[in-house]
Amino acid sequence: MGSLGGSSRTNGQQPQTGINNATTADVIVVGAGPVGLILALKLGIQGISTIVIEKHAGILRAPRAIAYMPVVNKQLKAMGMLEPLAKRSYQSRFGPSWRPVQGEAYVECHPKEKVEQLLKAGVKLPPPPPEDESCLYMIGQDDFSDLILEQIQQRCPEHVSVRFQRPCIGINNVPGGVEVMTTDKVPGIHQYNDIVLTAKYVVGCDGAQSAVRQYACIPFEGFTWTNFRFTAADVEYDFQKEKNYFPGGNFIVDPNDWALIARTGPETVFRVCYGEKPDLPDDEASMLERSKQRIPAFLSPTNKDYKLRRLKPYWAQQRCAQTFQKGRILLIGDAAHPEDIISRALESRRKAWLEVANPTSTANYLRLCSTDKDISATRTEFFRKMNTDPAFALGAMAEQYKLLPDTFEG
């Protein structure tokens, strides 16, 4: 494919040369979270011109993702990202655990112990991955985004331009490419310019409320859980020291006080994510007041001293876009590949969500809080097998690898 041509316009956020002046690129990425930025970095390293636009004024500071699974570590390593990530994150080599609100755990998964049990039993296992690829990297989504942005600026600034406070306000498929309209309009300022960018592809990495998906008229299929809303709270409290929790996923099993508790990085700040009734007010003052009763319930009876850093409500959704591609408009994927490979890669990702991520997350939620007799019986059997059958436990933990069955990279 040939170049789409080019022109220039300043975005006011980086030195005004080359890509930072351009309104044309090979790829436009919408969304400057980890997904959008890691895609931009990967493209930039390969010399593919990329413009990233983001509606917020900077990296979004909110309690969002905090763990990056071993399934992506090999790809991050190939990009030269694993070493800098290790320096900024907390590395966990424990598996998940399931626990009551207080008291001894129902299940604690130690992958290394499970492997040793199978080897002693004479089971032949494939060679383990390198140690740096097999651990869980704990780091807040905003901190990881900062790190990727630094890597872009250090390694491929001539190929990637990241432009904040530039929302996507329109998309149009055109022959041989796509047009994306953004604006430099900011609140309180009446003078502004709408800007049309052109590229061979646009990739929407802008979350559940994706403007790219909506402008492309791609429906969301599935449902939103309406019987609960969850609150994500970042808490300064050492759950590892005070309650002997794992740094990774600690699933709290209770019909009312169900939760997920995990470390957010190298500091002793943990994410306490707990369910709430959907009709409770979600203004900041009301949420803060309720948190004074909710959060202490999960702390040690002998130490209730904690500091709340931030909290935010979320709705849980089991939704997936009807398609991940519409012409030159993509919702995920590596836009540097030929079109037939793009289509196969996107369909593979969608299939992984439908067949692995969706049923697994639904089962995890029901396992935490359901009082249904059949689900309770299934939960009891699941815990029994996790504790007594090392092959079953390792298989359950290995489900994540089905999320990336093929990298489509030759």
TrEMBL record:
SUPFAM superfamilies: FAD/NAD(P)-binding domain. This is Para-nitrophenol 4-monooxygenase. GO terms for molecular function: FAD binding; monooxygenase activity. Keywords: FAD, Flavoprotein, Monooxygenase, Oxidoreductase. Residues 25-337 form the FAD-binding domain. PANTHER family: 3-(3-HYDROXY-PHENYL)PROPIONATE/3-HYDROXYCINNAMIC ACID HYDROXYLASE, FAD-DEPENDENT MONOOXYGENASE. Pfam families: FAD_binding_3.
